[in-house]
Amino acid sequence: MSGNRFAEFLVARRAELRPADVGLPGAGRRRTPGLRREEVAVRAGVSVDYLARLEQGRDSNPSIAIVDALANALLLDDAQRHHFGMLALTAGREDRCPGAHAPARVVPASVEAIIRALDPTPAFVLGRGLTVLTGNRGWEEFAAPLGLLDHPGDLAYWVFRHEAAHRVLRNRAAVAEAFTAQLYRASIRWPADRELRELVDGLRGIPEFAQRWAPRLAAEPAPTPLRLEHPAHGAVTITMETLETQRDHTVVVWLPDRALTREPGLRLVHGDRAVNE
């Protein structure tokens, strides 16, 4: 994993822009896509050498004024500016960032009670990234036929390394992209988390993951549904609702587009409605 996400973002954003985006002539074919470093430097009012040092990670302490000038030069919107500023603040300072302490793996009893109360709707608790710490009975019964429990605790492992995901996930490419983005955001939020870094470093050895891994916004997009061909339930579309706790844990509820059981009297929680089967 790169040690300077600010530098990565600078390079990636410069490559995204075209001369016409900033009012410059196309100037024919270019050896590399995007704006030239000199063009961004002029727009930001900094030297080309200084911009090169920032992009190469040799300078990780830009002033607020420089960050603001670069954001203007790169035509960043409000969400991108917030993300860009956060990257500038954390670059080279991982030991002082959130996540320097070890992640909490013990799930509080109150959170355990929440996911148990949601049975039979599948619900589980994620740690940082995509690590499943515990799940209710509904989750285990739904997840087992999909191969999700073959390597317990790692949703990314399932999507990128388990052959079952290729069979049962009808929109696996979209889910793989969403999970990669989620891990990227987690790595920005907890840059000093050694376990998270090791997880991502291992995944980057997989060509598909490495290709998807790229600087992106930290803003949370709408959850990607899981379109599954479940061995026991057939075609099922799962939407997700999440609730963050105060200990870096996230409660995740998988909401199926139809009931997963025909047993009488069971209560299926779907959105903010309770449906008696």
Architecture overview:
The chain has 277 residues and is an alpha+beta fold. Helices cover 41% and strands 14% of the residues. It is built from twelve helices and seven strands. It has helices at 5-16, 37-44, 48-55, 64-73, 78-90, 109-117, 137-143, 155-161, 163-168, 172-189, 194-203, 207-212, and strands at 123-126, 132-135, 226-230, 234-244, 250-256, 267-270, 273-276. The protein has a five-stranded antiparallel beta sheet with strand order 2-1-5-4-3. A hairpin with a 5-residue loop joins β1 and β2.
Q: SSE layout and pairings?
A:
Elements: H1 5-16, H2 37-44, H3 48-55, H4 64-73, H5 78-90, H6 109-117, E1 123-126, E2 132-135, H7 137-143, H8 155-161, H9 163-168, H10 172-189, H11 194-203, H12 207-212, E3 226-230, E4 234-244, E5 250-256, E6 267-270, E7 273-276
Antiparallel strand pairs: 1-2, 1-5, 3-4, 4-5, 6-7
Helix pairs in contact: 2-3, 2-4, 4-5, 8-10
- Neighbour order of strands in the largest sheet: 2-1-5-4-3
Q: Beta-strand percentage?
A: 5-15%
DSSP strand count: 7
Q: What is the element string, with H for helices and E for strands? A: HHHHHHEEHHHHHHEEEEE
Approximate shape: elongated
Largest sheet: 5 strands, antiparallel
Low-pLDDT parts are 261-277
Helical percentage = 40-55%
Alpha-beta content class: alpha+beta
Number of helices: 12
Radius of gyration: 22 Å
Q: Determine the mean pLDDT.
A: 84
- What is the end-to-end distance? 48 Å
